[in-house]
């Protein structure tokens, strides 16, 4: 099930808007086959234009969120 959490939009022209859509989803499998009941998160970037029939998505990008990863400590920087 897909749940939209937040939508932020910005008009870049009177009939053109860029929207950032935060989402969560349960029930979908990851490419490796895992995660059916593990909530997934992500953000969509959409470009919409308004025409006679209403708003239409003309460009779309979906990015899944991944857990933050701690970087290894490499020691003190050289002086």
Count of distinct strands: 4
Total count of helical runs of at least 4 residues: 0
Mean pLDDT: 87
Taking all Cα atoms into account, the compactness measure Rg is 18 Å
CA(first)-CA(last) distance: 53 Å
Write out the strand line-up for the largest beta sheet, numbering strands in chain order.
1-2-3-4
| Alpha-beta classification | mainly beta
Strand portion: over 45%
Shape, please? flat
Largest sheet: 4 strands, antiparallel
**Low-pLDDT segments, ≥5 res:** none
Fraction of residues in helices?
Answer: under 10%
Order of helices and strands: EEEE
Explain the layout of strands and helices:
Blueprint: E1 2-13, E2 16-25, E3 40-51, E4 54-64
Antiparallel strand pairs: 1-2, 2-3, 3-4
Structural notes for this entry:
The chain is mainly β and 79 residues long. The chain is 0% helix and 57% strand. It is built from no helices and 4 strands. The chain has strands at residues 2-13, 16-25, 40-51, 54-64. Strands 1-2-3-4 form a 4-stranded antiparallel beta sheet, with no helix packed on it. The protein is flat.
Explain briefly what this protein structure is.
The chain is an all-beta fold and 79 residues long.
Quickly list its features.
about 80 residues, mainly beta, four-stranded antiparallel sheet
């Amino acid at each position: 099930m897909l749940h939209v959490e937040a939508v932020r939009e910005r008009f870049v022209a009177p009939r053109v808007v860029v929207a950032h859509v935060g989402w969560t989803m349960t029930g979908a499998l990851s490419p490796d086959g895992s995660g059916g009941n593990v909530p997934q998160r992500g953000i969509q970037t959409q470009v919409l234009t308004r025409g006679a029939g209403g708003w239409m998505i003309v460009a779309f990008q979906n990015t899944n969120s991944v857990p933050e990863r701690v970087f290894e400590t490499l020691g003190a920087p050289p002086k």
